[in-house]
Design brief:
Elements: E1 5-6, H1 18-31, H2 41-60, E2 69-72, H3 75-86, E3 92-96, H4 101-114, E4 117-121, H5 131-135, E5 142-148, H6 160-170, E6 174-177, H7 189-192, E7 196-200, E8 212-216, H8 254-270, H9 272-291, E9 296-298, E10 310-315, H10 320-331, E11 333-334, E12 336-338, H11 343-349, E13 357-361, H12 368-383, H13 385-388
Helix pairs in contact: 1-8, 2-8, 3-4, 9-12, 10-12
The chain binds pyridoxal-5'-phosphate.
């Protein structure tokens, strides 16, 4: 089907604003050299885009020191840098059952390899963690609290300000996974008492894949767990401690940075509030439509306050993967099915045994007509669910 309705924006945003494509093309043709490594003009200009974007992103997250904005490949990379660089053998960490595998798996590895003890705070039936549940779980050796700012499954935005305050009182570094929120809702790390924010460029920041990073607040020192080229002070044998080099290794994805800078500019011109309002209007229409259908269950969407435009649902008796395939093949609607790399969320909403759910992720370019097509598709699947049911 030519006119695909793309509702998989929680996986990656698509399409990107036109300016992202054009700027990346122009930038790479004119300035695609290795920034910060030499003194010739092109190199300086490539460096300007890198440093300018560092400044814009630091500012976007409410950070004061652009050098503490470090670029990596994506959230997974950034979260690994932060988690491995903050925890040591025998430490205790606090996290939640809302996490993506990019937090869960590093923590599982550390539990097995370095005897790091981790407590996972569960979410309630509405899809939120309670800050008081953290309070009770702090220990003398708690060295990190890491929380998914908004669930990539049920879309709930967590009370990070309250959790941040608790961490601050105890002097424990607080890391948020902003993969789903950066570019969707404002994030001011100082207002939220967040110490480290991990972001990915290809979702709501509207950049390309392969670029992401961290902002690290002053006073929080992440150990470098890798070493390599920095382009400066090459005779020094150990990897540099100064930011940004401390957490940047090898040639930066400068093409990705260029695309990300164009995405960020587009977002700032449109305004996050306006984009969020548009997306929430569409996801509310989706939620209402799905809720009214017989045989369809929507999870944690009763009250859409403190939500982003992501929702999961199931058609009674039908495998989510089959729902996804029918939506795609019969209706030209793209969504994401399964466990969404967040197995504990599916345990929490009771969908593990039925292989997960189908997810719609709304983006800035979706329209009310897209929602209508998606609803028509699910309505047809639900009306014929007995014929499609293969679950026991
Ligand atoms: C909450 C959350 N964390 C982390 C990630 C990982 O992002 P990336 O694949 O860009 O590393 C995702 C992406 O699906 C996500 O939704």
């Amino acid at each position: 089907m030519d006119d695909l309705v793309y509702l998989d924006n929680a996986a990656t945003s698509f399409p990107k604003p036109e300016t992202v494509y054009t700027f990346m093309d122009q930038f790479y043709r004119r300035f695609g050299v290795n920034p910060g490594r030499s003194g010739f003009d092109l190199c300086v200009e490539a460096g300007d885009i890198l440093e300018g974007t560092r400044r814009s992103l630091a500012d976007f997250f409410g950070g004061r020191d652009p050098n503490r904005l470090v670029f990596g490949y994506n959230s997974t990379d950034a979260l690994n840098l932060a988690i491995y660089g903050l925890l040591e053998e025998g430490d205790h960490a606090l996290s939640t059952t809302l996490e993506h595998n990019s937090v869960l798996r590093p923590l599982y590895h550390l539990s097995e390899d370095w005897a790091v003890d981790v407590d996972y705070v569960p979410f309630d039936e509405r899809g939120f963690v309670d800050p008081d549940d953290f309070k009770a779980r702090f220990r003398d050796n708690t060295r990190l609290v890491v929380v998914n700012h908004a669930s990539n499954v049920i879309g709930t935005v967590q009370p990070v300000k309250e959790i941040g305050r608790l961490c601050k009182e105890r002097g424990v570094p607080f890391l948020i996974d902003a993969s789903q929120t950066a570019g969707k809702i404002p994030i001011d790390i100082r207002e939220l008492d967040v110490d480290v924010v991990a972001f990915t460029g290809h979702k709501s920041l509207l950049g390309p894949t392969g670029i992401g990073g961290l902002y690290v607040e002053e006073g929080v020192e992440i150990r470098h767990t890798r070493a390599g080229g920095t382009g400066v002070r090459s005779a020094v044998r150990r990897h540099l401690d100064e930011y940004p080099w401390r957490l940047e290794y090898g040639t930066t994805n400068v093409l990705g940075v260029a695309g990300l800078s164009a995405g960020l500019l587009w977002l700032q011109e449109k305004g996050l509030d306006e984009i969020h309002r548009h997306e929430m209007e569409l996801v509310t229409k989706l939620r209402d439509g799905l809720r009214d259908m017989e045989g369809v269950t929507v999870y944690c969407q009763d009250d859409l306050t403190d939500h982003i435009a992501v929702l999961v649902f199931n058609v009674e008796g039908v495998e989510a993967t089959n729902t996804g395939t029918m939506l795609d093949v019969e209706h030209g609607v793209a969504c994401r099915t399964g466990l969404h790399c967040a197995p504990l969320v599916h345990e929490g909403i009771g969908t593990t045994g039925i292989h997960g759910a189908a997810r719609f992720g709304v983006g800035p370019f979706n329209t009310a007509a897209d929602v209508d097509r998606a609803l028509d598709g699910v309505r047809e699947i639900a009306a014929n669910r007995e014929a499609f049911a293969i679950r026991q």
